[in-house]
Structure formats: C-alpha cells, structure tokens
Amino acid sequence: MDYSKGITPAADAYEGKAWNVVGHTYTPKLHSDSVFVWHADIPDGTFVPPHIHPTQDEWIYVLEGNLEIEFGDELHKAGPGDTIRMPRGIVHGIFNRSGAGATCVFGVAPARKLFDLFTALDGLTDPEELVRISALHEVDFLPPPDAQ
User: Count of domains in the chain?
Assistant: First the structure.
C-alpha cells in the first residue's frame, strides 16, 4: 500500500471516499498497512453493536458530543477531549444516547481489512449481511442478547 507524505485537508477524505456505515458517516483521513484513521459523524440514537476486533487495537478521540461505550457489562461515558481505548480481543459497543450528534476521530492499528470492510458496508442496511461481511474482514459481531 502506498503511504506518502502530505496533508488530508479537513474538508477532504483520503482517496475522496466517504461511507455510510450503520447510520454513521465515516470519512477516511489516513490509511497504511500500519494504521487506519477516519473522522466520524455519529447521529443521536445510532450505535455500533457489540463486536470484537481480534487483530486490531481501536481508539476513538471525541471531538464534540458524548458517546457511551459498553465493554460487556461495563458502561463508560466519554465527551469532548476524551480518548476511548478498545484493545484487540475486547468486546465493545459504541452508542450515542446523548440527545445530540457526536463527532470523533477513530483509529485502528494495524489497518488489516477495515478500510475494505467500510467500502463493502457502505449503505448496507441488512443486519445479517453486515455481520456476515464483517466476519470476512476480521470484525466479529456478538449475537443479539435475546439470541444468546
């Protein structure tokens, strides 16, 4: 993968891409074999269900708004300036239950297949297909609580 010097301006996206994934707008800012970073607009009432990245560490830096992160039975709240750390292999779900939108910067290391996953999920609304495609890209969603 080509990783070159330069700047991705605030209003631009890496390779001109942007995706709608689970109701969030993801705009890639940096992508290499080592790391993938994207800006996210997370509307109120949206979420990423509990899942695991077995091959990546993930983090979120909150710019505006508030998010709730569930690590299994643990609930953590994050606001502007907070950094959320989600180590590989740890179940986590990301929720905006704040009553307002949130913006943040996400990152994963190493990049692995996540950039390609977001390309495949862009605009997808079928939950079963989302789970199937995600598993092919090293992201494993947990079954809904009533299915466990």
Answer: 1
